[in-house]
Every structure is written in structure tokens, then in C-alpha cells.
Design brief:
The protein is mainly beta. Helix content is 3%, strand content 50%. It has two domains: 159 residues, Sandwich (Jelly Rolls), CATH 2.60.120; 191 residues, Galactose-binding domain-like (Jelly Rolls). The longest helix is centred in the C-terminal third of the chain and has 7 residues.
Length: 426
């Protein structure tokens, strides 16, 4: 931050979350962070994604281990059958029966809000079978399904019948050979079945609430773990349950501006982040004061990255950038001085606003949030930097541009030290 270096971000950040929260650690294992403890997340290969900042969510599925509240149709379950994403032997083996018809495990959720979006997710690993389908369905064969390949991670079929909507399907590789598969569905009902079916190929014929109908051999298997149903237009981190719904509280992180030499007359903030949320108003960073009446911030305005400012709750400046790309690494910069500002996304065109005065009374910076601690980023912050001066348009464009690909990369020793043209000459 500014010209200061800190050995640990925890030395300066005030962080709260009134519950535990799960995350993928650097060793590729799904872990749980204690209350009021930040989560720095990695992908399954150990690449750092950054500080995870999420809104509050509730897992409506009361048994995330596929036990009591789940019905098995044309299949059996064996609990604690193999190592799961959390590194312990608590995943569930689903084995099909030698029967004709549906081969699913399903759970009934009541009530839900008719016409609202719900994210259904679980971790799955291939056994002798590699294809599963996730679906949401209500009365009258109104259903929405997506098919997942547990060998390649691809999604090859989406089937919707009746007045249902499937707005998103994702498959993310995670620990111990598992993929986290998810769908987002909207149904015209106040109750819903959420189902996982084992299917025969990448493009099965799914025509009813029960998924694909066929005669199984009885030897088909997959492993599953961590079922979750949550109200929202995208899935969030896993929330374990064991008999009742459970809520993960919101992540809130802030720093007093005195900790890094805030400049009232000029400044630049530079961020690298991602967000799973493309609608509504996820916040990236907010500088607040005067009981929130004075503020300047970077956020998403209905799917577009933007910057705004308010003085005594009156805003005169807005800068609109390009669209939010779900879960994509994004670089943002906002530079201010006096009554003008410039902003840029990913080295694109710099957008200027000559009526963007700096609010005079700022006392804190909220990280991964908009003003007031209620519009979480729902993603990761890889880095954030503050300069107590206004960088030039050329500088913020260069700092947010993708790195250049070197024309030469040579390794001369056993420690894999690379000598790059860009590192030698700058």
C-alpha cells in the first residue's frame, strides 16, 4: 500500500466473517477457515487466486453428504467410500442398480421462491462412469438439466422443458480428481427437486424430471461430495450441512487510510481481481468517510465495471468501463486529482471524467466491497495497490495491460531460473 511494505496483510486489515468458510488451500485441499479469518484461495494446481470475498449465503440442502434428505432411484449409496476434496474419506459412492428407468439421487427443497434463481452444485468424480447430469424440476415435467463429463470437465448438453430456465452451467476442476459441477435454474414453482443422475454419454436423451431412462448394468459408479442449493444467480463456496440449513456470513475487510498515507488531493488505486457475479452491484474497492456520505469506489454497475463518487450523498461523477466477465482475471485502475478522474480495465481505452471531484472526508478503504459493507465482490482479489498521487493515463493503461509474451526464455541452472528479455531490460 503506497510506499509501505508489510510482511502480512493481517497486520493492517480489519477482517470479519461471523461464521466459518471453506476455501481451496495451496496444497489443493478444501479447508475451513475459522470465524473472522480471511480466506486466501488457490486453484487445484496451487496457483494463487487471492483473497476470497463473498456475500452471505445459505445452503438449503440440509444433508450435504447425500444421506437422509436424499432419495436414491435406481441406485445405491455407500458413504465414506473414498477421499474427498477435503482430504478425508467422506465422499459417497453412487452405484447404479441393474434396473430399467431413472438412475438418480434427488432432494426435495420446499419452499423456494417461484421465478427466482437457485444454484445447485456438488463435487463429483468419475468411477466406472464419466457422465452425470444435474437438474432442477417441478410438477408437470418442468425441468432444466446440464450434462458434465467428469473426465474432461466439459459441458456438452443442456436440456430445458416447460417453463424452466437454465442460465448457467459450470464445471471447475478441484482436489483429488473431483470437479465442482453447478447449474443455475429458475422454475415456476414454490418447491423443487434437485437431482444428480448418472447418464450414458455426453448427449443423452433427457425428457422428464427423472433424467435419462435406460437399463443399467449395475456396475456403473461415480463419487459425489458436498451438495449445495442456494438462492442466487451463481454458486458460492461450499457450505457443509448435517441436518439443518447452514449460513456462511459475509466477508468484510477494511483498512483505515492512516495505515498507508492516504492523499486527500490525489491518488490512484490499482487492482487485480475476479468476480463470479455479473448482475447487480458487486463492489471491488470503496474509499468511505463522513458516515458513508463521502465515497469513491470501483464496482460493477449492472454488469459493467464502473467508478463513482459522492460528496454528502450527491454524486457528480461516473465512469463506465466494459462488461464484467464472470470469474475472469481483471485489472482495474482509477486515478484521481482535484476534480477529474480516469479509469481503465485490462489495458483498454482510458475513460476520463472532468467532473469527478475527490470526496474530502475519507477515513477507510473497504476491500472487495462497495460502500457500506453490503455489496461483496463474490470473487478473489489477487492484488491491490494505492499510490498517493495521480498516475498518468499512459501509466494506468500500461499497468492494467496483459503482460507481454517474451521472445526468449532460457534456463541455466537447477533452480529453474529464467532469464527473460523483459526482466533484463524492463
Amino acid at each position: 500500500m503506497g510506499t509501505k511494505n508489510y510482511s502480512s496483510y493481517s497486520d493492517m486489515i480489519t477482517f470479519t466473517r461471523a461464521s466459518t468458510g471453506t476455501y481451496l488451500d495451496s496444497d489443493g485441499v478444501l479447508k475451513s477457515a475459522a470465524t473472522n479469518t480471511p480466506r486466501v484461495e488457490y486453484d487445484y494446481q496451487g496457483n494463487r487466486l487471492g483473497l476470497l470475498v463473498e456475500e452471505a449465503r445459505t445452503n438449503l440442502q440440509t444433508y450435504s453428504d447425500f444421506s437422509t434428505s436424499w432419495a436414491a432411484i435406481g441406485a445405491t449409496r455407500t458413504y465414506n467410500a473414498a477421499t474427498s476434496p477435503d482430504g478425508t474419506s467422506n465422499s459417497t459412492l453412487i452405484q447404479l442398480q441393474n434396473t430399467s428407468g431413472a438412475h438418480v439421487v434427488e432432494a426435495f427443497i420446499n419452499p423456494i421462491v417461484s421465478g427466482a434463481s437457485y444454484a445447485f452444485s456438488l463435487f463429483a468424480k468419475k468411477g466406472t462412469s464419466r457422465y452425470i447430469a444435474l437438474g432442477g424440476s417441478s410438477a408437470g415435467n418442468i425441468c432444466a438439466w446440464a450434462v458434465f463429463d467428469l473426465e474432461t470437465g466439459t459441458i456438452t448438453e443442456q436440456t430445458v422443458t416447460g417453463a424452466a430456465t437454465l442460465s448457467q452451467a459450470k464445471c471447475v476442476e478441484t482436489a483429488n480428481g473431483f470437479f465442482r459441477c453447478s447449474i443455475v435454474v429458475t422454475l415456476p414453482a414454490t418447491s423443487c427437486y434437485f437431482s444428480m443422475g448418472v447418464v450414458t454419454n455426453a448427449t443423452p436423451t433427457i425428457v422428464t424430471w427423472a433424467g435419462e431412462q435406460y437399463t443399467a448394468l449395475g456396475s456403473e459408479t461415480v463419487f459425489v461430495y458436498g451438495a449445495q442449493v442456494e438462492a442466487g444467480s451463481f454458486p458460492t463456496s461450499y457450505i457443509p450441512t448435517s441436518g439443518a440449513t447452514a449460513t456462511r456470513s459475509a466477508d468484510v475487510a477494511s483498512i483505515g487510510v492512516g495505515a498507508f498515507g492516504y492523499n486527500k488531493g490525489a491518488g490512484t488505486v490499482l487492482m487485480t481481481l475476479d468476480s463470479a457475479q455479473t448482475a447487480n452491484f458487486p463492489g471491488a474497492v470503496a474509499f468511505n468517510g463522513n458516515s458513508g456520505a463521502d465515497r469513491w469506489y470501483l464496482y460493477s454497475s449492472s454488469g459493467t465495471w464502473a467508478a463513482r463518487q459522492f460528496i454528502d450523498n450527491v454524486g457528480t461523477g461516473t465512469i463506465n468501463l466494459s462488461a464484467v466477465e464472470a470469474s475472469a482475471e481483471t485489472k482495474l485502475a482509477l486515478a484521481l486529482k482535484g476534480s477529474s478522474a480516469s479509469a481503465v480495465k485490462d489495458g483498454g481505452s482510458v475513460v476520463n471524467n472532468a467532473t469527478f471531484p475527490i470526496p474530502p472526508l475519507i477515513d477507510e478503504m473497504e476491500i472487495g466491497d462497495g460502500p457500506g459493507g453490503v455489496t461483496q465482490l463474490n470473487g478473489h482479489i489477487s492484488s491491490i495497490a494505492y499510490y498517493p498521487r495521480r498516475l498518468t493515463d499512459a501509466q494506468i493503461k500500461a499497468l492494467t495491460s496483459p503482460p507481454e509474451t517474451p521472445t526468449l526464455s532460457l534456463t541455466f541452472d537447477d533452480s529453474s531460473t529464467s532469464y527473460l528479455e523483459t526482466s533484463i531490460h524492463g
